[in-house]
Structure formats: structure tokens, C-alpha cells
Amino acid sequence: MPLGYTLAMIKPSACRKNHVGPILAMINQADFRISAIRSTKLTKEEAERFYEMHRGKEFYDDLCEFMSSGSIIALLLEKENAIEDFRKLIGNTNPEMAEEGTVRKRFAESLQKNAIHGADSPENAKREADFFFNQRERY
Ligand code: GTP
Ligand code: MG
């Protein structure tokens, strides 16, 4: 049985441009239930820890700088087959390759400012959910 939840994050650029409402509407329309939600701002160190799997890559420092440049919305989302279905809903990492009707096609500005993050494996979904939310915040 595929993991029934995923962790998502609306990135600073999308928050700055007031795309939060339309993105949440797309998430609800795709049948994800919001189990936990928080607006917060990451420190550079927290962004480095969140994206630690990319440590050493040439875009890592820029990415962490950007991810700590403004507020983000963290979301714990419940749905059967959540991880795969959510990656389909958000579309390709590179907005030039993102499919019609996806969140990134509509709201990404560039490869870095691509509007939204979605966990890519059960291990990362769990790690990222624990990063943002304790058990009392998940309903
Ligand atoms: P996330 O959901 O944000 O993790 O994106 P992803 O899983 O589709 O892509 P990946 O985990 O490989 O990369 C994490 C983030 O780093 C991406 O969402 C981009 O914002 C950024 N990124 C990835 N590759 C590049 C790159 O080649 N150049 C730049 N500037 N940024 C990149
Ligand atoms: Mg990723």
C-alpha cells in the first residue's frame, strides 16, 4: 500500500506573488486533504538541512539562499498514493518542461523559483513531515 501522505512546500517566490490561494485550490481540487499547514520562514541553516540530499551540487548554496529569502507554506497532505500523485500535480522541476495543467506550468518563474516542492520518496516524506510538524499538529 503506497504511503498515504506527502510533504509539500510553497516556495518564497510563490508566496511573495500571492499565489498561495490558487495553489491551495489546485491541491484541494486534486483530492488532497490538508492534514497540517504552517506559514514560516526558514533560516539558511534550516534550508541547508531540509535540502541536505543536494549538498555539494553546484546549485545547492543558491537554492538554500533562495529558500530562506522569505516565508514559505509547509503542508502535510493526505491521499492514497500521495507522493506520486502530488509529483504529477506539480509537474516537471523545470517549468519549460512542465506539463499543461500542473502547478509549475502555471506558477513557476524559473528552474529555481519553481513555486512548489513535493517529497520524492516515502523516506523523505517522513523526514520532511517530522522536520515541520509534531504529532499534535497533524489531524
Ligand atoms: P523539489 O520538489 O523542490 O525537491 O524539486 P524536485 O524534486 O523537482 O527537484 P530536485 O530535488 O532535483 O531539486 C530541488 C530544487 O533545486 C528544485 O526544485 C529547484 O528549485 C532547484 N534545482 C534543481 N536543479 C537545479 C539546477 O540545475 N539549477 C538550479 N539553479 N536549481 C536547481
Ligand atoms: Mg526534490
Could you give a short description of this structure?
Helices cover 40% and strands 19% of the residues. The protein is built from 7 helices and 4 strands, in the order E-H-H-E-H-H-E-H-H-E-H.
Description:
By secondary structure, the protein is α+β, with helices and mostly antiparallel strands. The protein has one domain: 2-Layer Sandwich (Alpha-Beta Plaits), CATH 3.30.70. It contains 7 helices and 4 strands, in the order E-H-H-E-H-H-E-H-H-E-H. It has a 4-stranded antiparallel sheet with strand order 2-3-1-4, with helices on both faces. Helix 3 crosses helix 4. The longest helix is centred in the last third of the chain and has 11 residues. The protein is globular. It starts with a strand and ends in a 7-residue tail after the last helix. About 35% of the residues are buried. The mean pLDDT is about 95. Bound molecules: guanosine-5'-triphosphate and magnesium ion. Guanosine-5'-triphosphate binds next to helix 4 and strand 4.
